[in-house]
């Protein structure tokens, strides 16, 4: 797949279907602003203080005219934004063109193939060598999934040298995800780890994405005695991230030596 990132005259990256539609997109964005007074009020009230100054935001959300108003609200509040669509058919090409020309990095067009879709997702997450976004605005969990799977693959690669095997799954779309991660590992084996370290959080829109997050949600295990040890192992095998709280220093040390994160209850609930 020979896709190449393009750049505006100001150096902003993008990949859209037709930049000549940008003027049409701008007209419709101006109309939509009238129908979205909440976001416009945010610009008026908070724009001068620039609360998002220095923040990096990646969006994986339908690249429509209404989303364009959201993107330009984020940039008006100081954020840097990179965006892709969360659906291969949901992009409005004139909206994508207008935003790419005027406001933010956009990688989206209507009628993407699945390979193109995941290429766009990867580009939206790629902020260069010093990490990824501070926040993901996700719709369906695909951007979040790519980081999680990337980190998992990088940890395995560092430990054993093993790379993801796309043939290990029958899911055609997940094969694409594993291929993207596999191909990037040798060039940059810490790419997604750096993203994880910078990322503050995810704003997830849909039940699909929330269900994915529930599958990865945290477990706080109070006590690492005989029962706690068995529960910790079982929960870890079920895919949960396990955090142990333990009053006994010997049991806490045992949990730590077994590879579990150990926190006090106060530190855990602050999270």
TrEMBL record:
Catalytic function, reaction form: S-adenosyl-L-homocysteine + H2O = L-homocysteine + adenosine
PROSITE patterns: ADOHCYASE_1
EC category: hydrolase
Keywords in alphabetical order: NAD, One-carbon metabolism
InterPro entries: Adenosylhomocyst_ase-like_sf, Adenosylhomocysteinase-like, Ado_hCys_hydrolase_NAD-bd, NAD(P)-bd_dom_sf, S-Ado-L-homoCys_hydrolase_CS
All copies of domain S-adenosyl-L-homocysteine hydrolase NAD binding, residue ranges: 198-271
Pfam families: AdoHcyase
Superkingdom of origin: Eukaryota
Pathway: Amino-acid biosynthesis; L-homocysteine biosynthesis; L-homocysteine from S-adenosyl-L-homocysteine: step 1/1
Cofactor: NAD(+)
Enzyme Commission no: 3.13.2.1
Function: Adenosylhomocysteine is a competitive inhibitor of S-adenosyl-L-methionine-dependent methyl transferase reactions; therefore adenosylhomocysteinase may play a key role in the control of methylations via regulation of the intracellular concentration of adenosylhomocysteine.
Family per record: Belongs to the adenosylhomocysteinase family.
Name recorded for this polypeptide: Adenosylhomocysteinase
The species this protein was found in: Rehmannia glutinosa (Chinese foxglove)
């Amino acid at each position: 797949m020979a896709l190449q990132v393009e750049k505006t005259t100001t150096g902003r990256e993008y990949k859209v279907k037709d930049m000549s539609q940008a003027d049409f997109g701008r007209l419709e964005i101006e109309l939509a602003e009238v129908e979205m007074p909440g976001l416009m009020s945010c610009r008026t009230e908070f724009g001068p203080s620039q609360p998002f100054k220095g923040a990096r935001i990646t969006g994986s959300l339908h690249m429509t005219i209404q989303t364009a108003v959201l993107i330009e609200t984020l940039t008006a509040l100081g954020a840097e934004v990179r965006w892709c669509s969360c659906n291969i058919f949901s992009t409005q090409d004139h909206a994508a063109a207008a935003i790419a020309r005027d406001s933010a990095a956009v990688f989206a067009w209507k009628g993407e193939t699945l390979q193109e879709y995941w290429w766009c997702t990867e580009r939206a997450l790629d902020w260069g060598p010093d990490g990824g976004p501070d926040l993901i605005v996700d719709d369906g969990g695909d951007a979040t999934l790519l980081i999680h799977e990337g980190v998992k693959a990088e940890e395995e690669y560092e430990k054993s040298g093993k790379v993801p095997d796309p043939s290990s799954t029958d899911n055609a779309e997940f094969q694409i995800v594993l291929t993207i991660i596999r191909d990037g590992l040798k060039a940059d084996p810490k790419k997604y780890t750096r993203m994880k370290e910078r990322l503050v959080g995810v704003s997830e829109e849909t039940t699909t994405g929330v269900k994915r997050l529930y599958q990865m949600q945290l477990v706080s295990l109070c006590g690492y005695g005989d029962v706690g040890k068995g529960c910790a192992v079982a929960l870890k095998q079920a895919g949960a991230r396990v955090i142990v709280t333990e009053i006994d220093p010997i049991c806490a040390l045992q949990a730590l030596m077994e590879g579990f994160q150990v926190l006090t209850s106060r530190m855990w609930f602050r999270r």
